[in-house]
Structure to design on (515 residues):
């Protein structure tokens, strides 16, 4: 039935109903039509549809599909550790087999082969993809839709945003157009093109579910959430709007089964282009930091601060001697905006601050003492691999920002695959230990990582201090450890087993005592 017919049919029906009833005097313009005296509900004309028809994606795919590429990688498998073949150190049976003398077979391990997607952003061969697709790969091959293949060079990798830049030696190549992800709205149509499970140039469609979504462990990326079907192999592929512009890079899904469950996440393309420009120009990405711990503002907090409504990022701790401390920012302040960019939720702040060039000044609008004021702050630089904590004299205390480990993305991979889809829920555990005051933070971190290499994804230190009852020359260390499995949801037993191994390793290596 044509659109015209669909619109006409209710009108014919209403005319027929009107012809069967008594004549009423014509209503005056703007006057309300009285309800029928019989008490029956009035018959109303159906409202015009807000959305009509479905889009045809074929012209978009035909125009920009050739710019989407398949990315295959070869990486060296990590040497097998001593233990039962096929079991990771995080497996409950690992210690059992190791105790009875089972050992992994010796000899070189076969290489790991991975697969993902990417897309050409320029005619001279620059390609964007995910960092987890090509990280640690010794060989990267790019295959076009016309089956041409090129050996690609990894220009740079940024694990914090999961963005990588590749370069192939070719010219006059098809390329995509870059869009504006800030213009995206929930409910808008988008499509993904990629290579799920190795099926090249597969097209899936859906809508934007939400924007500026903050995910655990990904503080520097305001993700685009969609319901587009994304599966292993789609990583690094483009997310298009209906104008044929790339607005994001498909990066990960949230799943409890290992497959697509209607929740997909893409990196906004403006974040990726910002990273790409820095990687191409200097080989590294500079990010700003101000040295604060933040949390969301709920209704109860907003009421206590006399905020008109819950919004902004509440400063719960300030790093001593950091940029925020020097600027006069205090615990209890609520950051409302940065350089006139409003902060609705605390998860938006890290990405905004990270996007400011270190060494420049920014203006923060804050809420303090029931009124708004502005302060100027000189933004510091976020180090690539900051220490968990600095060495401190007895009695001193400091908060050090959350650390994402180098292996964080690798821990989300399927076995034998370089793709980071999907991700399972993470679990946190807090511990407090007593260690030597002179013990370097890097030694503590290394010991913890080696004790739970397959599931530990983050170490966060809250405090290091000379507490009551702590012997001279030793300090109390408060840590939060985050665990996540690449294969399944961890049980309480899994997490407790990992914690036991961590505590045993700390005691053996450093004489640590749990408090």
């Amino acid at each position: 039935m044509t659109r015209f017919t669909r619109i006409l049919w209710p009108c014919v029906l209403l005319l027929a109903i009107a012809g069967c009833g008594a004549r009423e005097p014509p209503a005056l313009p703007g006057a309300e039509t009285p309800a029928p005296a019989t008490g029956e509900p009035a018959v109303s004309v159906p409202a015009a549809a807000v959305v009509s028809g479905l889009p045809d994606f074929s012209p978009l795919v035909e125009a920009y599909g050739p710019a989407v590429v398949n990315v295959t990688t070869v990486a060296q498998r990590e040497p097998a550790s001593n233990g039962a073949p096929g079991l990771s150190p995080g497996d409950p049976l690992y210690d059992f087999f190791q105790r009875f003398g089972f050992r992994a077979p010796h000899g070189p391990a076969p290489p790991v082969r991975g697969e993902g997607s990417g897309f050409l952003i320029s005619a001279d061969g620059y390609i964007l993809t995910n960092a987890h697709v090509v990280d640690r790969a010794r060989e990267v091959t790019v295959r076009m839709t016309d089956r041409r293949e090129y050996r690609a060079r990894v220009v740079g990798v940024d694990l914090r945003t999961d963005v990588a830049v590749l370069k192939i030696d070719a010219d006059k190549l098809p390329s995509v157009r870059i869009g504006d992800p800030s213009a995206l709205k929930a409910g808008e149509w988008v499509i993904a093109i990629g290579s799920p499970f190795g099926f090249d140039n597969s097209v899936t469609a859906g809508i934007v579910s939400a924007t500026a979504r903050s995910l655990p462990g990904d503080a520097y990326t305001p993700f685009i959430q969609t319901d587009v079907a994304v599966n292993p192999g789609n990583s690094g592929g483009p997310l298009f709007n209906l104008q044929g512009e790339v607005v994001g890079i498909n990066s990960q899904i949230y799943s409890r089964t290992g497959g697509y469950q209607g929740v997909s996440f893409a990196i906004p393309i403006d974040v990726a282009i910002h990273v790409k420009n820095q990687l191409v120009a200097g080989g590294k990405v500079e990010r700003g930091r101000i040295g604060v711990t933040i949390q969301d503002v709920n209704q109860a907090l907003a009421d206590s601060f006399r905020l008109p409504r819950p919004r902004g990022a509440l400063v719960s701790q300030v790093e001593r001697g950091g940029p925020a401390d020097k600027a006069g920012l205090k615990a209890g302040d609520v950051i409302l905006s940065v350089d006139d960019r409003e902060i609705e939720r605390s998860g938006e702040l890290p990405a905004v601050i990270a996007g400011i060039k270190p060494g420049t000044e920014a203006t923060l609008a804050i809420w303090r003492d029931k009124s708004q004021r502005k302060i100027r702050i000189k933004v510091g630089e976020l180090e690539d691999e900051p220490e968990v904590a600095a060495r401190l004299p007895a009695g001193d205390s400091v908060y050090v920002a959350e650390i994402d480990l180098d292996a964080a993305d690798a821990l989300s991979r399927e076995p034998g695959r370089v793709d980071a889809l999907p991700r399972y829920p993470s679990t946190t555990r807090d511990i407090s230990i007593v260690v030597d005051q002179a013990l370097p933070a890097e030694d503590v971190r290394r010991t913890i990582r080696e004790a739970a290499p397959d599931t530990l994804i983050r170490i966060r230190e809250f405090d290091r201090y000379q507490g009551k009852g702590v012997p001279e020359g030793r300090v109390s260390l408060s840590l939060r450890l985050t665990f996540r499995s690449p294969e399944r949801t961890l049980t309480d037993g899994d997490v407790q087993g990992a914690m036991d191994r961590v505590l045993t390793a700390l005691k053996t290596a450093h004489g640590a005592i749990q408090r």
Remarks:
- Confidence is low (pLDDT under 50) at residues 1-37, 385-422.
- The chain has four domains: 64-167, 177-282, 288-381, 403-514.
- The longest helix spans residues 492-510.
- The two ends are 74 Å apart (CA to CA).
